[in-house]
Amino acid sequence: MPRFWLERNKMKSIGKIISAEGEFAVAEIEKKSACTGDCSSCASCKSGKKVNVRVLNKCGAKPGETVYITLPGTKAFTLAAMTYILPLVIFFVASAFLKSEIAQAAVLLSSFAVMAVLANMLAKRKCFMSETERIESADF
Fold first, then answer.
1. Which position among 28, 55, 116, 136 has the lowest Cβ density within 10 Å, counted as fewest Cβ atoms?
2. Tens of pLDDT, residues 108-117
């Protein structure tokens, strides 16, 4: 994917600032992925439709303000690739050396687990955090 496309395309959500401390804030956003809102038909929705996320408060938003929560495409792609693509590459390389299917499955599962933990740790670093952007009245 071309870098200019990833930089231009940001993942955006609208959120409400719950608390702000220094350069960080906690924002409440609506769940979007796979949530239909019909909790009786879906067992995965245990905490409701809203989630709290820790974000980098670049615009200095105060509690109660509504803001855009953005994550640049390059950062989202990096985290997704690290979580899903890299374990598959590790699996295929390991498969060339390991003849046992059990060992291959163990490599695949452990690489998914390790990469998910590393991606989660990376997402909590300041350089990979979502950022706040003020919503102009014309945008809303």
1. 136
2. 999 999 998 9
